[in-house]
Amino acid sequence: MAPLTLVIGNRNYSSWSLRAWILLKHLGVPFEEIQVVLDTPSTREEIERYGPSGRVPVLRQGELAVWDSLAICEYAAELTGKGWPQDQQARAVARSVCAEMHSGFTHLRSLWPMNARARNRRTAMTAALEADIERIDVIWNDCRARFGATGPWLFGEYSIADAMYTPVVLRFNTYGARISPTARWYMATVLEDSSLQEWVAAAKQEPWTNPSEEVG
Ligand SMILES: N[C@@H](CCC(=O)N[C@@H](CS)C(=O)NCC(=O)O)C(=O)O
Fold first, then answer.
1. Residue of 16, 24, 66 to mutate, ligand 1, most atoms within 8 A of C-beta
2. Least packed by Cβ within 10 Å: which of 59, 118, 141, 188?
């Protein structure tokens, strides 16, 4: 396989970067990493050296640029033959929950920004935020109940769905979401994951702070 390079943002704040990065780790795909610091005057110009959207993550393989976290996950799944559940119906549901994450949960994403190293933050609860949290709780319960028999992840084996929901677990952990026992159990699985622990440890070493994402 031609060498891969993943361009990511700040580990502490860049939830979309984390999704692509942790999937590549779980699929066992070797890759180089380039980090672009977000929220500086030159961020956009720097990212545009690698991909056209001005956003991270971007996956490079020679001249090929793949941008947007879900497209990167799909490409990694094509390269490895892993990442989606084997069963057709499970795969269809996995794609549904990934798409729902990718295009939704705007209240959660804006009110509880990912801040990987922060703990014990608290914010005022809103009805819209509560609805996002409840919906995610339902998704995790449903996936675990219907498809989780073969392992600890949403679809048993690790899948793109787990990568897509990893930043949500970090948010729930930072801001103290009130969730069901099954959702708490799933959170523990994600938080104990050695790849995530590697990411969070590196986030703690980063010197950059973005005040707009320091909430609670
Ligand atoms: N839909 C995109 C979203 C990517 C995105 O918003 N990335 C943020 C960092 S998490 C970014 O690059 N921000 C750069 C900026 O706003 O200057 C994806 O899934 O990759």
1. 16
2. 188
